Amino acid sequence: QVYFRPMLSLYIKADTDFAIYVGVKDEDGNAYFVQYTPYAGPASPNEYPSGQYLSYPLGAEFADASWRALERDIYEDFASKTGRNAASVEGIILRAHDSLQVADLRLSTTE
Q: Which one of 9, 14, 20, 33 is least enclosed by Cβ atoms within 10 Å?
């Protein structure tokens, strides 16, 4: 059986903190958010396993006001934190605290 995995790719330019949330459901229908940010934040009660957020700090260079390419295997990021399989991507939310520019946002699949 062949599985297709969703890949998130985009170019991003930010000069402050931001968050990219990818809504994911597991095979049991439970909803989670895979969260990408430039910096690691303090521990939150909403962080998995007690909550629904799976945080991935990207690095401070993603908030240095330069264009950066971002490519992530959403299912791999989900599975590496939960040990579960993801069933679907439900949506993408972008949130910025100041200036955020995005180009060529794609959600594609790979085998």
A: 9
18's tokens: 């931001």
Closest CA to 67 of 31, 15, 105: 15
Closest-CA residue to 9 (of 65, 68, 89, 77): 68
DSSP 97: S
d(CA 10, CA 83): 26
Residue 101: pLDDT above 60?
A: yes
Residue 110 φ then ψ, to 5°: -135, 150
Dist CA 102 CA 65 (whole Å): 12
| CA-based nearest residue to 63, from 94, 95, 35, 38 | 38
Distance CA 110, CA 9 (A): 12
